[in-house]
Design brief:
- The chain is an alpha/beta fold.
- It has eleven helices and ten strands.
- Helix 7 links the parallel strand 6 and strand 7.
- Helix 8 packs across helix 10.
- The longest helix has 18 residues, at about 295-310.
Length: about 350
């Protein structure tokens, strides 16, 4: 089997826009773990053979056992990489933006307009990554906004701050500050004066206790929460394969490792916020990936199948040709995928006068 490595700098030049993080280590192809020694991912020279090369270092959803994405409950060593590389976050940003629910914005705007005693909006973005949530939401909200960006990765925080929007929907000023820390330690005091809490692709990598902590903090601060793009555990292909359901089930089990909620996160969050008296609204936010999203689809496929095989090693023998066939169809522009997610809006009872 042909192997290669690609540094984040290499991929950044191909993807464009985000500079590679200094000091990142090279990463081998995720597909290496799927192909038995001496095996082949695809016929030489095929589109699938080319497509399996150059996996983005840190691209989700594959992770090392026990690893958390961008927000962690434990301290990391100086050489330990976050699970989500900035190149992966940039690659998925257009699909995220297209998927987020517009239907939840009107009730959110109404609540924000009626919050008591506010002189502009204070918005906490948890696990902000490179700041895609702010770039999507800030231009859709009226009024002056101050975004407080939370993440454990100082490199991502720097990029998020530099690339943040400068104006809201009505031209009002948008300002930002960054805080490096752990969202699971949020308290109502930490959210004092908050108008809104946001997060993207975060709920599914939290535990039940962490989600309950988040709900309690929002309730104590009397601020709503817009939590987008939590995995729903369902994937649909334009050309179904008998192995689809088995891969999906194994991936979902992988997402639940270590007590993480994975595809159960939205249901748990609904219960947690409702227990504090919040009104909760949920709306689908699927990725709809076609030929124009081939690079993202290919990276997502590698991670999706890789996580499934890590969870159930017996899938490796069938998973390798399955992945190669899917990548070949993707490279040929013949694959459409719907990856289901959900967005959640929790409207906590305002505390009044704060």
């Amino acid at each position: 089997m042909r192997k290669t490595t690609a540094t984040p700098a290499d991929v950044a030049r191909r993807v464009g826009g985000i500079p590679a993080q200094p000091g990142r280590k090279e990463a081998g192809s995720v597909v290496d773990s799927l192909i038995p020694d001496g095996g082949s991912a695809a016929p030489a020279g095929s589109g699938a053979d080319d497509a399996v090369l150059g996996v983005i270092a840190g691209a989700g959803p594959v992770s090392r056992t026990g690893e958390r994405p961008t927000v962690r409950l434990r301290d990391a060593g100086p050489d330990e990489q976050p699970r989500y590389a900035p190149e992966w976050l940039e690659l998925r940003e257009p699909a995220d933006a297209a998927a987020r629910s517009m239907e939840l914005l009107d009730p959110l705007r109404i609540r924000l307009a009626n919050l008591p005693g506010r002189g502009g909006l204070a918005i906490h973005d948890l696990g902000c990554g490179t700041g895609s949530m702010g770039r999507w939401l800030a231009p859709r909200l009226d009024g002056a906004q101050h975004w407080i960006l939370h993440d454990r990765d100082p490199y991502l925080l720097h990029f998020a701050a530099v690339a943040s929007p400068r104006a809201g929907a009505d031209g009002s000023r948008v300002t930002v500050e960054t805080r490096r820390g752990d969202v699971a330690r949020l308290t109502p005091d930490a959210l004092l004066g908050a108008s809104l809490v946001t997060a993207s692709a975060l709920l599914d990598v939290l535990t039940r206790e962490e989600v309950e902590t988040l709900a309690a903090a929002c309730a104590g601060a009397g601020c709503p929460a817009l939590l987008t793009l939590s995995v729903a555990g369902r994937v649909e292909f334009s050309a179904p394969d008998p192995l689809d359901d088995e891969i999906a089930a194994a991936f979902n089990d992988h997402q639940r490792r270590g007590g993480l909620l994975g595809p159960d996160s939205v249901a748990v969050a609904c219960e947690a916020f409702a227990a504090h008296g919040a009104t909760v609204k949920v709306h689908p936010s699927p990725w709809r990936l076609g030929p124009e999203n081939a690079s993202l689809t290919a990276q997502w496929l590698r991670g999706w199948v890789g996580a499934a095989v890590e969870e159930r090693p017996a899938l490796a023998e069938r998973g390798a040709p399955y992945l190669a066939a899917r990548l070949a169809a993707c490279a040929a522009g013949e694959l459409d995928v719907t990856v289901h997610h959900s967005d959640l809006l929790a409207l906590a009872r305002p505390t009044g006068g704060v």
